[in-house]
């Protein structure tokens, strides 16, 4: 299939190459290959895309990124640097690349201002945030965005009519020591990523973020970070138990309604046809977006699987490109009309 849109595609700043190499040593089986791929925003990505029918890649700064920086001034300065850097790269290939804003999430007003700058000046298509923001004097605090303090930021997202991709990051500080240090192989895709993001987004649901901002659009990677598989049970307990105990004051709709109106999931890093079919049954093909998770996953694995998956051509087109074209209000890009 030509003209696919991929939207969980990571990059790193070249000046952090040594840090990137150290970080890659914890998960990459070929460190030098990973460093080369994640710092490239040109020929490598374009060649892979040409080979595998990806028309547009929406780029975002790699996790844990700015969310790992607990000094607010340093986090904001790096976010601005990253956004200006990737804006220059996108301008060289506007029919092949787009970008999500990188944001420091220490302060909702500052985050809103930088998002507005990136959307209005650089033409970015939204933002990607790596779960909670580290904070506090030693970085052991976590800022969640699921309370009313963050309403000015969410209001800006809806005013600009752009989505936010809520992406995972690695556990840190005392959370790491208490939960993950003795079971480190579960960090990342096997478990911790889904645990962190599902907690955060369900906090947004139950704390009324989507009721206060009904137009807000949130994207979840990896086929929904386990949530679609618990939809029946979540709905049952919310509607038949929790709302009888007071949840209805902050959560006025059902979890299925929030998925139909506010939440999207992507195929990033999760290339299983039976699992995709299950998600289509639970959340619908209209709320699913193709993605790769490059360079943590490969174009070949994602695209070869998706192009051959047992899907109707209507659903393949929706998931592969048409849903993204509507969500991001995309203009022409390579093979976009194919």
TrEMBL record:
Amidohydrolase-related domain sequence ranges: 66-330
Signal peptide limits: none
Keyword entries, A-Z: Decarboxylase, Lyase
GO MF entries: carboxy-lyase activity; hydrolase activity
Record GO biological process: secondary metabolic process
GO CC annotations on file: cytosol
UniProt xrefs under PANTHER family: 2-AMINO-3-CARBOXYLMUCONATE-6-SEMIALDEHYDE DECARBOXYLASE, AMIDOHYDROLASE FAMILY PROTEIN (AFU_ORTHOLOGUE AFUA_7G05840)
Protein name in UniProt: 2,3-dihydroxybenzoate decarboxylase
Originating species: Penicillium alfredii
């Amino acid at each position: 299939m030509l003209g696919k849109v991929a939207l969980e595609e990571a990059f790193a700043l070249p000046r952090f190459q040594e840090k990137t190499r150290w970080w890659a040593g914890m998960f990459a089986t070929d460190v030098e290959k990973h460093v080369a791929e994640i710092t490239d925003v040109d020929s490598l990505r374009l060649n892979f895309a040409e080979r595998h029918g990806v028309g547009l890649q929406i780029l975002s700064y790699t996790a844990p990124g700015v969310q790992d920086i607990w000094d607010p001034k340093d986090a904001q300065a790096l976010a601005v640097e990253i956004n200006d850097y990737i804006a220059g790269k996108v301008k060289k290939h506007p029919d092949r690349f787009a970008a999500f804003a990188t944001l420091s999430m220490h302060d909702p007003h500052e985050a809103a201002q930088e998002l507005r700058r990136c959307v209005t000046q650089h033409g970015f298509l939204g933002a990607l945030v790596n779960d909670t923001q580290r904070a506090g004097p030693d970085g052991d605090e976590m800022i969640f965005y699921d309370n009313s303090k963050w309403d000015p930021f969410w209001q800006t997202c809806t005013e600009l009519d752009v989505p936010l991709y809520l992406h995972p990051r690695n556990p840190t500080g005392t959370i790491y020591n208490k939960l993950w240090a003795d079971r480190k192989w579960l960090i990342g895709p096997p478990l911790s990523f889904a645990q962190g993001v599902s907690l955060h987004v369900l906090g947004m649901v139950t704390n009324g973020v989507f009721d206060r901002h009904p137009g807000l659009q949130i994207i979840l990677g990896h086929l929904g970070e386990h949530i679609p598989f618990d939809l029946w049970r979540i709905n049952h307990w919310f509607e038949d138990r929790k709302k009888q105990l007071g949840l209805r004051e902050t959560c006025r709709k059902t979890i299925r309604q929030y998925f139909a109106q506010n939440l999207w999931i992507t195929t990033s890093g999760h290339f299983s046809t039976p699992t995709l079919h299950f998600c289509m049954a639970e959340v619908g093909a209209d709320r699913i977006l193709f993605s790769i998770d490059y360079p943590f996953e490969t174009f070949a694995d994602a695209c070869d699987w998706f192009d051959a998956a047992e899907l109707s051509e209507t659903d393949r087109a929706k998931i592969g490109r048409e849903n993204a074209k509507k969500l991001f209000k995309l203009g022409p890009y390579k093979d976009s009309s194919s």
